[in-house]
Write a structure and sequence with these properties.
23 helices, about 15% helix
């Protein structure tokens, strides 16, 4: 079994592994039951686990670690928006021959003795089932209630009148959501017809009528609207100037998060600046990922362009129709609208067409080449003048091309071509009020301030594409678009402008000031910020935490990068992985000082697909090779056939193979940073070209590339494609790789960027236990093992095998889920909380939450709580709410993620909103405690709140001795756990700020009424009940479903069945506690018995760095043994006490459920390096010293 699943598929697998029992079969007949139809909505719920939460451990075994966050996402259909009279079925019952349903009245169902639980299989909405249950329980129900109808839907149809279908080919909803998102890929033609998403609660003129604002462009520090600074109001200044409190970390955006969440490998800042930026996460997988963090992600850099779904690209202008394009094509649609004839009514359509061709803008909007229209410059000019273009100056396009104010002005009275490639503007015009500090005035045209194109810095460039021209203009005028803050108190003002920025942006690696003065501040240490790294080589230089371990040396001695050394397996592999560090005039990298004592052919490099030895010795004797031992595959220079070259000719200084595949280290040494420049020209001694450009049509290149191996390309490129076919983007392109022959595969494999074991161009060689054996030796009396095959069966039991043809539906609802409505199967959409509209095309105002509950030591770990999370206004009125179950034993590493919506669109700007969280004990539904979260920036469209909430004992949580509020007789005065403020907690049947407004509680007698929203009760249900008012009964845990005395707890009823979790006792794990944990019995011999130990588990991972987990364990008094239990796989165990380390366990393959008996002995004491090396080696820089660490193991067998 392979563990290389896509992120979203991993989520689905984990849901089944962790939360779904193995004993309950999925029903043969699929049913879909909508929630919340009483609210004029219909919702399904999709349970998702964030991608970093699941980890398949080990190169040999598989394991599940719950770490990160999960959420239940509602996908809702707003009935008043979606349902039309001609698409739904009549209220009258119709026989099954003419419809997808059979229906009965409540009275008829009662007469047939149909109970409410029978109706789930009919795909009846939950609220309607609950209404029927109320009817059954009330003998005095009205006549109108008895006439209410219920339809029995045919399989696949659902709704109150069976009017909807997913057409999902038998998939449950969670699987269908998974398939919808996995089917999305870049450059899909179906994405072109989607509406895209817009934030419409701000009147913003983006230019073309079809263009709109994305909420992420509000308060991003630059103007995105033509009609002024409407997207950068005063509250944006407050956000920029915001400072965080004690124990908080300030994201670059101004948001505050708990300090404990910084660098925890889980994005909590909306701009992702709480994690290392070594590999910049631009959200490029968000189009295929429905998870929470994509809906909240904003761009890290101000100059980046938000695609509207969490993805960010470096520039708004595509490089072609397929390069630098948002997966959902938002930027391409903006450009297409900008250049469309209907958006340029001041010009004749023929003129617009010719302008698009001679400016080469047409390359961005159409696959149709303009070559036949305009073959040479003179013909272009003639067409330009006769095709009804104005004889004098004119603006094209009519809307600004950059920053909402920069425009191009052309004239027919000039032959202004640049490098014989494209027609350039005569004037570049802009808003002088914005750019006065940067540019001198030259000419006024139609009230526009302009420069002659020939007089500004643009004229020194040769542009091959209109996109390059526009992008250069955008960069030139970028700082004219940045918002000027009038009050710069406590902010940094750029030296040559009035722009003011937060001091947290100083020395963060991003140029915010036009003059780059923010990145050249001399003494940033005087700022005394808690999240700055002080360079030891320059005590006055304190850089932003975002610059530490980002792959770039920012301190003169490189100490900001040396904090994290490369893995031992990455040393001396002929790939330079870190920037050079300098000490005493010496340059140190992972590839320096690699002498004969560090062999290039070792267990980490053998047969991994990369040449790590100059002659490729590590790849010359592999099973998968096309050639016999000590030979390399070679594309012959004579006839371009595959030959086998003896290894003695490799790295001999002569090129024997096409592309220099036998002299690979030449190009790698010449261009170490250009990981794709690895094809060496056969007849050009010193020339290397990009592998990606092999046989690429010149039209795909931004500028003419003279560094190509033309003779080699003439020999290997398909004659019918090269230079002629517009679609052909090279033999190494993704579009061509399905046609790979052995020759192309060999030539394209020369790149370091696409090596099969690389991440970002760097081979990922991690800890491996290959040939390590076992200590202590394996025994035969072990408990049953959880083997690889066992887990294969578990996973395959619950992974759907259906493949559905949904390609034409995946973009119709943007980030929502497409459904069909009614007899005619009209289009409908189920929208997640971040969107609304008939195509989920509008972006919601909302509050997004990341909550982590921390169990205090005094609290029982097997407690179970229902958490009610409410968005409230300043009068304690509830705008919206959600509920989650919190199990300390299960959720100690979990972050809960959810959204809360406002009750109106747009939200009421006269109200002040906040979030309140109430906890109730799940056993008896007694109130436990409350927390309160302030929303600091009320005017933001999306408020992103992140909090750690401590859960202690009930007595501590309800300490209200000093309450200053008179709550009257219908409430109790309570203090929030996380603040010094008090509030009135209303008794059932009352609500309001002082709980003085009465309400008839609609919850059942065995449930609790915990609030009121829209004059309806909010109920929390006992374990065996669910529904809006807890009227419906669900099955309790099956008897003995949890093995080994595990405790069964019912999960959220909205999760697809089965919906329970087993809390396992120590020594057991699994969905039903059915597996024995690895039992490790440790005795101490010849050493002083400590009072406690630290157990360090090392787990080898496939293609990713190993995992180090530490467990603290006390040793009982008067005992010389201790027992550990490990539910996950591991390969090495070290025991630490008194600052000494001992090797306790080594496993070549980790076998979960094994019993291991081992001893802590003096002979297995891990010696410090001071005992192993002489003074000379110990004096080396650490990066040089670690290259000797393997030598003692080779020389001293007792160390191995």
């Amino acid at each position: 079994m392979s563990c290389n699943f896509s992120p979203v598929l991993q989520l689905l697998i984990c849901v089944h592994l962790v939360y779904i029992t193995l004993l309950i079969d999925i029903p043969a007949i699929l049913h879909y039951n909508l929630y919340h139809t009483n609210d004029q909505h219909g919702c399904f719920y999709s349970f998702l686990i964030d991608r970093d939460m699941i980890r398949y451990e080990s190169e040999y075994e598989y394991d599940v670690i719950l770490k990160g966050g999960f959420h239940i996402i509602p996908y809702c259909l707003h009935l008043t928006e979606q349902v039309h009279q001609d698409t739904v079925y009549s209220n009258e019952c119709i026989d099954d021959n003419s419809n997808n349903s059979i229906c009965w009245t409540f009275a008829q169902l009662k007469e047939k003795q149909i109970i409410s639980n029978n109706l789930f299989a009919w795909s009846v909405p939950i609220d309607l089932i609950e209404h029927y249950e109320t009817f059954l329980n009330n003998p005095n129900s009205s006549n109108s209630a008895s006439l209410t109808t219920i339809y029995n839907c045919s399989e696949g149809w659902f709704g109150s009148h069976c009017q909807y279908t997913l057409d999902s080919d038998g998939l449950i909803f969670n699987e269908f959501v998974n398939d919808i998102f996995l089917a999305k890929f870049p450059n899909q033609k179906q994405a072109r017809s989607s509406s895209g998403t817009c934030y419409t609660h701000l009147l913003c003129d983006r230019g073309p009528s079809s263009s709109c604002l994305d909420w992420r462009e509000i308060c991003n520090g630059k103007r995105d609207c033509i009609n002024g600074d409407v997207d950068e109001e005063n509250y944006c200044t407050e956000l920029e100037a915001n400072e965080c409190g004690v124990g908080e970390y300030r994201c670059q955006s101004g948001q505050c998060i708990p300090h404990a969440f910084v660098r925890d490998n889980d994005y909590d800042c909306a701009d992702a600046t709480d994690e290392t930026m070594e590999i910049e996460d631009d959200g490029d997988d968000c189009s295929r990922n429905p998870a929470f963090d994509c809906e909240d992600r904003i761009c890290t850099k101000r100059n980046n362009f938000p695609c509207g779904d969490g993805e960010c690209i470096s520039r708004i202008m595509p490089l072609s129709m397929s390069i630098n394009v948002c997966t959902n094509q938002r930027n391409q649609k903006l450009i297409q609208a900008l250049l469309a004839p209907k958006e340029n009514p001041h010009l004749f359509p023929e003129c617009v067409f010719v302008m698009n061709c001679i400016t080469r803008a047409n390359d961005l909007i159409s696959r149709n080449s303009c070559d036949q229209l305009c073959r040479n410059i003179s013909q272009c000019i003639d067409l330009f003048r006769v095709n009804k273009c104005p004889p004098s100056l004119f603006v094209f396009p009519i809307h600004p091309v950059a920053h909402g104010h920069v425009r191009f002005v052309y004239t027919t009275n000039t032959t202004n071509f640049a490098g014989n490639k494209l027609f350039t503007p005569y004037l570049v015009c802009f808003n002088n009020q914005l750019c006065n500090p940067f540019l001198n005035l030259t000419v006024i045209y139609n009230n526009l301030t302009c420069h002659y194109y020939s007089n500004i810095s643009l004229s020194k460039y040769t542009f091959a594409e209109w996109s390059e021209l526009v992008e250069t203009v955008r960069q030139l005028f970028l700082h004219c678009s940045l918002i000027t803050i009038k009050n710069c108190t406590n902010l940094f003002q750029c030296k040559q402008s009035s722009l003011c920025i937060s001091t947290h942006r100083l020395l963060d690696g991003i140029n915010d000031c036009f003059d780059e003065s923010d990145e050249n501040v001399i003494d940033t240490c005087s700022l005394q910020g808690p999240y700055r790294f002080q360079c030891s080589s320059d005590r006055n230089r304190c850089i932003s935490l975002t610059m530490v371990n980002n792959g770039i040396v920012d301190c003169s001695a490189g100490e900001d990068e040396s904090v994290q050394l490369p893995l031992f397996s990455m040393l001396c592999d002929w790939y330079q992985d870190i920037s050079p560090l300098f000490e005493n005039g010496r340059e140190e990298t992972d590839e320096t000082d690699c002498n004969s004592h560090f062999p290039c052919n070792n267990q980490y490099t053998q047969c991994d697909g990369d040449w790590n030895c100059p002659d490729g010795l590590d790849e010359a004797n592999c099973q998968s090779s096309l050639c016999p031992p000590f030979h390399h595959p070679c594309v012959s220079l004579k006839n371009d056939s595959i030959e086998c070259l003896p290894i003695k000719f490799a790295n001999d200084g002569r090129i024997h193979c096409r592309g220099g595949s036998d002299e690979r280290h030449y190009c790698r040494n010449l261009f170490p940073e250009l990981v794709d420049t690895r094809f060496r020209c056969s007849n050009e001694t010193h020339r290397c070209m990009s592998v990606a450009k092999l046989c690429m049509n010149d039209k795909y290149l931004l500028v003419k590339d003279d560094k190509r191996c033309r003779e080699d390309e003439d020999a290997i490129c398909p004659a019918s494609y090269f230079q002629n076919d517009w679609e052909f983007s090279g033999i190494c392109s993704l579009a061509f790789n399905e046609q790979f022959h052995t020759t192309e595969e060999l030539l394209c494999s020369l790149t370091d960027q696409y090596s099969k074991n690389t991440v970002g161009g760097r081979p990922e060689r991690c800890l491996t236990l290959r040939h390590a054996g076992y200590y202590p030796p394996l025994t035969t009396h072990n408990a049953p093992k959880l083997t690889e095959n066992t887990i294969d069966r578990i996973i395959s039991t619950h992974i759907h095998g259906n493949k559905i043809n949904i390609i034409n539906r995946i973009w119709l609802c943007n980030r929502g889920i497409h459904i069909f409505i009614g007899k005619k199967k009209e289009n409908g959409c189920l929208c997640p909380p971040a969107y609304y509209g008939d195509q989920c095309q509008y972006q919601n105002q909302r509050v997004s939450l990341i909550l982590k509950f921390i169990k205090e030591l005094s609290l029982d770990r097997n407690s179970v709580f229902q958490m009610v999370i409410m968005l409230i206004d300043d009068k304690q009125r509830i705008e919206s709410y959600d509920k989650i179950n919190y199990l300390p034993a299960r959720d100690c590493n979990i972050k809960f993620r959810l959204n809360l919506l406002y009750s109106s669109r747009p939200k009421d700007s006269n109200k002040t909103y906040s979030v309140r969280i109430d906890a109730y004990n799940n056993d008896n539904l007694d109130y436990h405690s409350s927390w309160h979260l302030l929303i600091q920036f009320q005017n933001l469209p999306v408020n992103h709140l992140v909090a750690r909430l401590f859960v202690g004992t009930k007595e501590r949580a309800q300490d209200s001795r000093y309450c200053s509020i008179d709550c009257g007789s219908h409430a109790l005065c309570m203090k929030y756990v996380n603040s010094q403020h008090y509030f009135c907690r209303c008794l059932p049947g009352w609500f309001g700020y002082f709980c003085n407004i009465s309400h008839n509680c609609q919850c059942t007698a065995d449930s609790r009424c915990v609030g009121v929203i829209a004059n309806r009760s909010i109920c929390i249900c006992p374990l065996n009940k669910f529904g809006t008012f807890c009227q419906l009964t669900r099955s309790v845990c099956p008897p003995d479903i949890c093995s080994s005395k595990g405790i069964c707890v019912l999960d959220d009823s909205r999760m697809e069945e089965p919906d329970f979790t087993c809390l396992c006792n120590e020594g057991y794990f699994g969905p039903q506690c059915q597996f024995n944990s690895t039992k490790i019995e440790i005795s101490f011999e010849g050493v002083l018995i400590p009072q406690a130990i630290l157990a360090h588990y090392i787990t080898a991972m496939k293609n990713t760095p190993h995992i180090h987990t530490t467990v603290f364990k006390k040793i009982p008094y008067d005992q010389n043994t201790v027992t550990l239990f490990r539910s996950g796989s591991f390969h090495i165990l070290f025991i630490e006490f008194s600052n000494d380390y001992y090797l306790a366990v080594v496993q070549e393959k980790s076998n979960v459920s094994r019993t291991i008996s081992t001893r802590v002995l003096p002979s297995y004491h891990c010696k410090p390096i001071s005992d192993l090396f002489n003074h000379t080696i110990l004096s080396y820089h650490r990066l040089r010293r670690i290259k000797y660490y393997h030598i003692p193991c080779q020389k001293l067998s007792q160390l191995a």
